[in-house]
Specification:
Strands 1, 6, 9, 10, 12, 13 and 15 form a seven-stranded antiparallel β-sheet that branches. Strands 2, 5, 7, 8, 11 and 14 form a six-stranded antiparallel β-sheet that branches. 0% of the residues lie in helices and 34% in strands. It is built from no helices and 15 strands. With 231 residues, the protein is mainly beta.
């Protein structure tokens, strides 16, 4: 999954996002209809193995083995939760500047004053930017709260910056991505959510232009998916 912001043609086109959540994304382990043979997840081994077969994930603390398809599926299949350690978090409010497994991908990310996503707070707003940046975050409704923010004054017209997840191995049939976004200013560009599976990427949600100086809710249905990224 990749969230992509695009710069408009002026400095009054900042974009921010906050409170991303993956809801109802766990696969269902209950009894299925009788015409369908349920696939059962094998129980964790009772004896700690010295090594795992090829193609399986080795859990950190106890050396348990789980299938690679169980890594990054929003469930702790390892008793220590190590199968979800390097994955995107199910709920993220960015407080404390934590990225929750989301990674910034920008062509010129290493350059100074480049357009890219960064964790920030409303209390850092400078003069002239009050109407295009969120004064308060969505989580705490406070100037001290954190959110992800892309500063349009640091980019050229049409430049993009991506915020993407690691590969998500599987999601349940009701899986939905919920987030809040802030797009204020008469020169705001575009905010998109893209889904990427191998080499194929498609737009799942898009918003363009000034949406007012307030946080707005977005909902993106993901459904039953395997081995994909949000970006």
């Amino acid at each position: 999954i990749l969230i992509e912001g695009t710069v408009g043609d002026d400095f009054e086109g900042d974009i921010a996002i906050d409170d991303l959540s993956f809801l109802d994304c766990q696969l269902f382990d209950g009894e299925l209809p009788s015409l369908i043979t349920p696939t059962l997840t094998p129980p964790a081994p009772t004896v700690i193995p010295h090594s795992c077969p090829e193609g399986q994930f080795v859990c950190g603390a106890h050396g348990e083995c789980v299938f690679l398809s169980q890594v990054c599926d929003f469930r702790h299949d390892c008793s220590d939760g190590s199968d979800e350690t390097n994955c995107v978090m199910e709920i993220c409010d960015f407080e404390g500047g934590v990225f929750c497994g989301w990674a910034v991908v920008s062509p010129s990310f290493s350059a100074n004053h480049a357009f890219h996503w960064a964790a920030n707070q409303g209390e850092s707003i400078h003069d002239g930017d009050q109407n295009s940046r969120p004064t308060n975050d969505h989580t705490l409704n406070s100037t001290k709260g954190w959110y992800m923010y892309a500063d349009s004054s640091n980019g050229d017209y049409g430049q993009t910056s991506d915020l993407q997840t690691p590969v998500i191995s599987s999601t349940g049939p009701h899986c939905t991505l919920i987030f809040w976004y802030h797009m204020s200013g008469f020169t705001v560009g575009t905010l998109q959510v893209l889904l990427r599976h191998k080499n194929i990427t498609h737009v799942a949600w898009s918003q363009t232009g000034n949406q007012g100086n307030r946080w707005k809710r977005a909902e993106v249905f993901l459904g039953l998916s395997n081995d994909f990224q949000v970006c």
